[in-house]
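SEQUENCE-TO-STRUCTURE ENTRY
===========================

Subject: a protein chain together with a token-level encoding of how that chain folds.

Sequence line: the amino acid chain in single-letter code, read from start to end.

Question of interest: how does this chain fold, as expressed in backbone structure tokens?
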Amino acid sequence: GPSNPRMLMVRENKMASTIAVAEKKSVDAARHAFTNDSAFMIAYERAIETEKKGSDGDSSEVCLVDDPFARMLAGNKGKELSDSFGISAAPQFGLWPDFHKQWTVVRTKFIDDHIARIVNEFEASAICGEQLQFLNLGAGLDTRSLRLKAMAKITTSYEVDMEAINGPKGDLFEAIGAGSEHPFLCQRNIVTANMTNDGELEASLVESGFDRERATIVLAEGLIMYLGDKAETFLKDVSRIVVASGSWLILNFIEHPALTNEKVRELLMRGGWKDLVFNCFGDEVLDYGRFDKSYEPSKAFSFVVCRKD
């Protein structure tokens, strides 16, 4: 006879919860295999910002970042790291435990806004139908190709990282439904390269179809500080690889004696970059109302944005 509708409902609910448990397991497993801990921390810090949107609490604070994927990517590891990091990391912000959470939000917003601006300016001046490509160096768990509207106007996003990150990252993104129920906004190429090895970045990009003739937005967020004494070579490599007119570079760096603003300026100008604009956390731009004004702006948290014409 006909099935009891209530029984059917119970069975469907049971099935849904079984699927949910299985999905959670696969996300947990994928997360466990991913070894770049700082990427979890950054994802967690994007998640807390995103979740302000839904809270009825203090609505005086505008939500600066909307990353619906960050929470799933971060897991518990991200919170633990973030909570302990704030206290130990930056003596210059000794009494501001939330400084890194705010820095993550501010730098994400700064980059998102620049990408949107560049895409819009390019579209307004482009010869019919011409599109930019995006080169994300040290991409980690970046979700811009899933969440940032401007990426829909990019032809291809090349996301570069080391094998130790790219292998597990693919599984983790798949586990959260990226590319299936959550389509990517543009074509996406995952490129494996160790950027401290001479010539490896260029070779891997060429092999993955990177178009040297096409105007490119290059992003290096939270990367150069991990390259040690190879930072200079890296900047020279990027300047040599990205030559097309209309290209832009968004570089996040820590100013220190071996890599001062002056040094960065000299390397980039020699590499053909123009109109360099430097900003640091706490200045009039890298703030968005989030910098604790009882501290001095810090050059340990710097950006330079520049272009090729």
User: Anything to note?
Assistant: Strands lie at 132-137, 154-161, 187-192, 216-220, 248-253, 274-281, 298-307. The mean pLDDT is 87. The longest helix spans residues 5-33.
